[in-house]
Amino acid sequence: MPISRKIRFGVAVSFPDTLQQWRDLARKVEDLGYDVLLVADHMTRQWSPLLALLAAAEATTRLHVGTQVMANDFRRPIVLAKEIATMDVMTEGRFEPGIGVGHPATSAIGVSDYKQLGIEMDEPGPRVTRLEESMHIIRSYLDSPEPFEYQGKFYATRETVNYPRPVTSPHPRIMVAGAGPRILKLAGRHADIINIAPRPPVKGMSARGTVGFGLDISGSRDIIREAAGDRYGDIELCVFADRAVVTKDPGPAREKLAADLGITEQQMDEMPHTLIGEPDAICDTILKFRDSHDVSYRIVPGGLMEDFAPMIAKVGGK
């Protein structure tokens, strides 16, 4: 049985050159009706995400701010837990932290985040294990004022001082982003918001089997629901519409995207991040995936911020 969640919209923005431009951008995002302003976490030409988001929150009144997403390997989890709690206090409950396993992003001169930090980027397996250990520590810190101890394969903590206490009850809603079965299971167990990275659908694959990158939205949702158990109804499913195109003539854009993905246009329509067409048609697609697959939180690229404003007015909060 699908859950019933209201549609929310977030926008993933790039950083301008000045603080005043940043404040103006945050106010514009709020005025357009978006629920959340999100930034990335890289060593490329961008600002420090948490400090920037604090400034954006101070420039607005209702807008939530968040990360899409912080790289787990860049910070010790107990330090990140303290930063999340502090941001929750300082934004008065408007911070939505997002966390993932890290990404091999490179700067304009071709130097990866990991190389700039002087650390090796492991294979996905160890990175997912570290993320799960981090989630244990972060949730333990946020969920209780009592000191705790944790001993994992990669992280350990002793006699923690769990301060400050978050103002959001029971804790700030944490987003985990990912695509593979293992990270989706992790997210189902620990996350409040799950940002499902899109993958082309592959027919005949079982959500319980070895699905790899053929995992479609139905398989992703089923894995999350099984891992979450009774808490599934409290989880918000999210998709970043990185392939969205708002146009009165969707034919060429649909044809090109299907060719780029190596799938048919019918298969492409089964991917919730491929929002192509006029606003009314896109609204229908958003509602369809909410009703059929529980995807209620939509993040759009900053370049489409104004194009999606009419859709926010029509289906936001519905």
Number of strands: 14
User: What percentage of the residues does DSSP assign to strands (E)?
Assistant: 15-25%
What is the CATH class designation? Alpha Beta
CATH names the topology as TIM Barrel
Q: What distance separates the N and C termini?
A: 19 Å
Order of strands across the main sheet: 4-6-9-10-11-14-1-2-3-5
Name the CATH superfamily assignment. Answer: Luciferase-like domain
Helix content: 25-40%
Q: Helical stretch count?
A: 11
- Cα-atom Rg, whole angstroms? 19 Å
Low-confidence stretches: 203-213
Structural class: alpha/beta
- Structurally, how many domains make up the residues? 1
Average pLDDT figure: 92
- The assigned CATH architecture is Alpha-Beta Barrel
Order of helices and strands: EHEHEEHEEHHEEEHEHEEHHEHEH
Report the principal-axis shape.
Answer: globular
Largest sheet: 10 strands, parallel
